[in-house]
Amino acid sequence: MENRKSVALVAHDNMKRDLAEWVDWNWEVLLKHHLICTGTTGKMVERTLRDRRGKEFDEEAVDIVLLKSGPLGGDQQLGAMIAEGKVEAVIFFWDPMQAQPHDVDVKALLRLATLYNVPTAINRSTADFLISSPLFGSNYCPVVKDYKSYIERTLNQ
Ligand SMILES: O=C(CO)COP(=O)(O)O
Q: CB-side exposure of 15: number of CA atoms within 13 Å?
């Protein structure tokens, strides 16, 4: 498919129901893209898509990669993929009401998404705006800031 994107889907436990509803609502669009999920979120996304398609569900039709569970390194794996330019959109329903054991990983992931100018939705309304944007289905390519002067800086040693 033209303009197929690599879309990351992640949710903390208290937000998984929200993401499942959002995936259910947007299943037709999501099936056209390559999905990358942290472990537990990914299982839920697969189940939601399967339930939605019912008997017509074709395992092959879902292009999904499951990383490790977030607290076990999944956020860091996803962050590495962002740094390598392998993620084109992030939908991350993080929990604003509960601290996570891997909060530092969450922060690192969101930092890299910002650094590399990856379209990132951290709540449902923004996810709605993102997926319904004409740019989502286009070949829009976000500009990444040029860090050449930082890379080539002179160190006083
Ligand atoms: O913890 C997460 C994101 O920070 C999500 O991990 P799981 O999808 O494995 O629950």
A: 19
Record the pTM.
0.94
ipTM over cut 0.95 = yes
- What is the rounded CA–CA span in Å between residue 46 and residue 23? 10
In angstroms, the Cα distances linking 2 to 27, 88, 135, 136 are: 18, 14, 13, 12
In the reported structure, the alpha carbon of residue 78 is separated from the centroid of ligand 1 by a whole-number distance in angstroms of 11
What the chain holds in terms of domains, given with CATH numbers, is 6-151 (3.40.50.1380)
Asked whether residue 85 is marked as a ligand-binding residue, the answer is no
3-state helix, strand, coil in the chain (%, to 5): 50, 15, 40
Q: How far is ligand 1, taken at its centre, from the CA of residue 71, in Å?
A: 6
For residue 120, the model assigns a pLDDT of: 98
Kindly tell me the sign of the dihedral angle through the C-alpha atoms of 34, 37, 43, 49. negative
Name the residues annotated as catalytic: 75
